[in-house]
Design brief:
By secondary structure, the protein is an alpha/beta fold. Helices cover about 45% and strands about 15% of the residues. Helix 6 crosses helix 8 and helix 7 packs parallel to helix 10. Belongs to the PdxS/SNZ family.
Length: about 280
Amino acid sequence: MNNESREETARRYAIKITLAKMLEGSMIVVVKNEDEAYVAEAHGARAIIPIELTNLQNASKNSNRLTEADLSHIHDIMDFVTIPIIARVRVGHTSRAKAFEGGKVNFLYEYEDISKISENYIFKHPFKIPFITEAKSLSYALKRINEGSSLIINKSSNEDSDNVGSTFNTVRAIFKEIETLHEADDVYARTIAVSAEVPEELVKMVARKGKLPVPFFASGGIFTPIDVSLFMKLGCDGVIISNCVFNVINPETHIKKISQALNNYNDPNKLMDLMTGIGPPIKPS
């Protein structure tokens, strides 16, 4: 990186953002094994996030604290699908990120966890593959983009990370901040830049466009067609579907309906059809 020109860094970052934008209008599904990965791809997922089966024993209460899947588990899943694989790494775990990059994953998702490695996020520009990171506000999103993130998802509080209501509130708040910036003057943009410790030009870019310069996905407790419709109407570029989707009676049909909702979120009649006949939401224990 030290011997690399600014133009080379910018060129590589533009390529990574282009790769991330290929996921726009789609769903990313969290999966725990090869069978779930196959079902997700077959019914419309554009990418998947593997997680370890052994970490799901208390998922109903601690799903936000699941550790990332190891490389051998990810490679097993790679053999079953052709869509991009997103490997999770904890905040600041640069060594693990480099190992995953060497392992030929397609994206890296740097996520916050109770056992996070560092308070400092990975500097992402030297990496050849795109990073996904979380943000609980516009300021956080700007920081992560300045570090080299190519896709942003919302970050809810640890206690509510699987609560779709909390997800909605966080996403709506971020869009409201962007709208305020879009309508404000350059003085306000300069204030935001100073507060977030990011280049003023990045803030002005968001102000001009009225949106982030990278895709923005909603994540947290999303696993019904009507959830998907809600977040797409808000202005999200896509959604991350909870692994809970595989606990419904017929996950294949359910995921297919979610995929259809992504393309029909403004059609109330179609959404009504998608909400009927999906059966009980969770398998009986």
